[in-house]
Amino acid sequence: EYQLDFSRIESNGKVLGTVLLAFDVTEQAEAERMRREFTANVSHELKTPLQSIIGSAELLENGLVKPEDQLRFLSRIHQEADRLVALINDILRLSQLDEGGALPHEQVSVLELAQEAARSLTAQAAAQAVHISVTGIAGTVFGVRRLLYEIARNLCENAVKYNVPGGSVTVEVAETDRDVTLLVRDTGIGIPEGDQSRVFERFYRVDKSHSRAIGGTGLGLSIVKHAVAYHHGTLRLESQPGKGTVITVTLPKEPTE
Ligand code: ADP
């Protein structure tokens, strides 16, 4: 896509010639298109739980719900409100990432972050009878603690959420001379091949009905992708439906150009 600029060169009232400048704005146009698409998606995602809340509240207000069903309607309202809060939190995280800018860098142990993430999921994992283990070396990188935590937390949370009863999540931290790798392996439901390249897109969820029951915003992996890119790292996904998923994040120990 090009933006054209046409100008006439004059000297003492005499036209000497004309200049046509063509600016390549493909990148800006693409960014603009993505912003518009994101806003449309956000509006849709926020509207769905709100409509459900309004609908349930109206029925309750008008006395149209039998007493024995009232509690169920109230919990639906509560659940949808929780979903809205989760969505707004994820959207805020993403927009902070989009802004980029200078965030405070420090030496961070990826192993500690993974342990912290696993601890925060203890209750959820126990409820699903999923076992989590975290092993490896400290794996210290110079980066933004909050963002690096988001990577570990979102990957571990998915590994628990999309697991099966009695399944396991194995987190391993390793290093080479230049990089630290964080590997999150689960024995869960897996991701069909056709969806594997799309799960990092904003709001993309594999099986809408199944995913809805599990709960989530469809933003977790796009936060991971952005946070990894911010640190000039790479991401690899391997998955087999019915067997499980392995996601490997490689992060340079020192910031690279
Ligand atoms: P969500 O909030 O839905 O979990 P994510 O962006 O974190 O959003 O993930 C996008 C989709 O990718 C999920 O809805 C799920 O369908 C799929 N997914 C992510 N991680 C896993 C995993 N470890 N195993 C199976 N499916 C996964």
From TrEMBL:
Residues 41-255 form the Histidine kinase domain. It is found in: Membrane. The keyword Ribosomal protein does not apply. GO terms for cellular component: plasma membrane. One of its GO terms (biological process) is cellular response to phosphate starvation. It comes from the Bacteria. GO terms for molecular function: phosphoprotein phosphatase activity; phosphorelay sensor kinase activity. This is histidine kinase.
